[in-house]
Amino acid sequence: MRKLRLVRIPRHLIIAASSWLSKIIIAGVQLVSVKFLLEILGEESYAVFTLLTGLLVWFSIADIGIGSSLQNYISELKADRKSYDAYIKAAIHILFASLIILSSTLFFLSDKLSSLYLTSFSDELKNNSGSYFFIASILFIFIGVGSVVYKILFAELLGWKANIINALSYLLGFLDVVAIHYLMPDSSITFALVALYAPVAILPIIYISFRYIYVLKTKVNFNTYKLLLSRSSGFLIFSSLSIIVLQTDYIVMSQKLSAADIIKYTVTMKIFGLMFFIYTAVLQALWPVCAELRVKMQWRKLHRIIFLNIIGGVFFVGLGTLFIYVLKDYIYSIIANGIDYNISGAVFVLLAVYFSIRVWCDTFAMLLQSM
């Protein structure tokens, strides 16, 4: 009688599966919350809210590249079966300093930056734009610094824990939004920002605090800080350039589009973002795997993984775009009813091309950063 052999699923695909679920939950929360936030804030205030949430990506560099630097060191030291506690402790020290410096700087610059960024709205909204900008910035700085938690867990091949923390934080934020929708339907932009994003900022910081207690007695020398910062500078430059390219649309929107057009664009990109999140989940899980293959010099296996991911990613984007186009009327009516979503098929083709290029670029970006 033949013995049945269990198929061994690669660990990065198991982590990716949990990441898919997490990303779907997060993107779903962001989509469903549009309906509630529009009813709470109204069209113009929600457009301001949308532009402020665009700052989240800009402040993802609040970790100054330390998260990616630490992730690679952990992967390398794990491959050599060495302790990496000193690197975690040093990284937390650097991130705390970054948080203090950035928060202090934004305290003085928020009024000026908000006057440049939020220019095409009513005087009432512009008069309060400085406080909106500062609150959003502080929340997103905490989120950017706290993201090191996910880097640590993915490097330890415990990405499922990172995915649980991330998904749970957004679910809590969504529940806050639902609560204020029914209990305080006339809430301000500040209240909406805190409701949705405070859990996303707080949960990773709590985990970092417990992790710091665990490594508290570990000795750290100056060279550890130097090594982390030396490698992080490359990640910081790379991330900054990527953000400038990918987030310029928000700057253009803030200066040129009406509130209705901002909402239309944002909802469309959120829908495509939900689709693309599924692919980025694979890349996130694949990062430490590529780092370990590089340390072990298994180049043939590394090349094969990258090739298959790009082909699969482009096919997935094409299939996803077709699905969105066929069901666009139904999808848009659920997310934000009352907004005129008259979008031509050519726009969907262009978005498919754009996200296919993103598949190529993001895959090689992940590969380069794992080196």
From TrEMBL:
It is found in: Cell membrane. Its main location: membrane. One of its GO terms (cellular component) is plasma membrane. Keywords: Cell membrane, Membrane, Transmembrane, Transmembrane helix. InterPro entries: Poly_Biosynth_Transport. CDD domains: MATE_like. It is a multi-pass membrane protein. The chain crosses the membrane at residues 12-34, 46-66, 87-110, 130-153, 165-183, 189-214, 235-252, 272-293, 305-327, 339-361. PANTHER family: O-ANTIGEN TRANSPORTER-RELATED, PST FAMILY PREDICTED COLANIC ACID TRANSPORTER. This is Putative O-antigen transporter. It comes from Salmonella enterica.
